[in-house]
């Protein structure tokens, strides 16, 4: 459990707890906040004074009371800041818009094959401009734009203190040139998509302090989350995509065969059958297509081997994000049975959680970084 060491750390930590609680639950009274967060009423009162002075919360309606003074709702100032997260992948670009509310205001996807060219980045710039204008964002309150990607970057394996998983087959992204192109947005190329996805999982599930995050998309990655407030998440990332789940299977870019990355990507599920999309694959599957049924059985076998490995290694709940989350959720009972059934080794049965907006998890995680930094700066 996280234990802040200084008075400043305590103030920041408690402020984040209160802001997160208000974000998830809406307006609440001081007493309700104290009960929900486990903080003392005096601590809540002191923190709310700071948050009010920083214009992060305001006083709302009063509630009639049968005894004593009427209570007052504490209301988060949702539009205190806006942020945009962008995920650039090999085949598409995703945008999300967030403020201090739950969880996103708008999202948008463009199909575009990655190329490290001015024309490509100019197109993203135009989409970003149009996205901001279409959603009537007050640019004076736009805290920043963060790009998440698994593509290789020019500054090496780390950006600041954040590790980036290099794709050796990808062109290098010149981050300095890219930041200059987007400099009016306080632009930052700072996140690997698997890390961004895990941050999204934390943003969505603040009441889940420890879990394994697995992103199943056109690529596969993940990380381990332990006490988000106390552990540097960026040093806990793992290359889950390169665990062996199907010995003798398809050769991976890492040089081995049968990696999760080669067996269970979203695109690999349908492209091997010459289908055009996941929707088409699952429509054919539901209509009794034998080829799709056989492919799905193999896919589930391999995926559940990976999930079982993660379960046995970490004994934690598993959050699944990425494009496949919405499809896998339909088969929750079958996956749960294959992964968790008949285990007497662990006294507590863990659970699978399928992330909402899983396809946009990395972009949401990127945008959430701006929100978290904004709150931390405001209360420092």
Please tell me about this protein's structure:
With 380 residues, the chain is an alpha/beta fold. The protein has three domains: 7-76, Winged helix-like DNA-binding domain superfamily/Winged helix DNA-binding domain (Arc Repressor Mutant, subunit A, Orthogonal Bundle); 80-196 and 361-379, Nucleotidyltransferase, domain 5, CATH 3.30.420.40; 201-358, Nucleotidyltransferase, domain 5 (2-Layer Sandwich), CATH 3.30.420. 40% of the residues lie in helices and 19% in strands. It is built from 13 helices and 14 strands. Helix 1 packs across helix 3 (41-53), helix 1 (7-25) crosses helix 13 (361-379) and helix 9 (278-286) crosses helix 10 (290-314). It starts with 6 loop residues before the first helix and ends with a helix. Mean pLDDT is 81; it is low at 155-170 and 229-237.
Kindly name the structural category: alpha/beta
Instruction: Give the proportion of residues in helices.
Output: 40-55%
Q: How do the strands line up in the largest sheet?
A: 5-4-3-6-9
CATH architecture of the largest domain: 2-Layer Sandwich
Name the overall outline.
globular
Number of domains: 3
Largest sheet: 5 strands, mixed
The CATH class of the largest domain turns out to be Alpha Beta
Mean pLDDT across the residues is 81
User: What portion of the residues fall into strands of 2 or more residues?
Assistant: 15-25%
Number of helices: 13
Name the CATH superfamily assignment of the largest domain. Answer: ATPase, nucleotide binding domain
Order of helices and strands: HHHEEEEEHEEEHEHEEEHHHHEHHEH
- What's the end-to-end separation, in Å? 22 Å
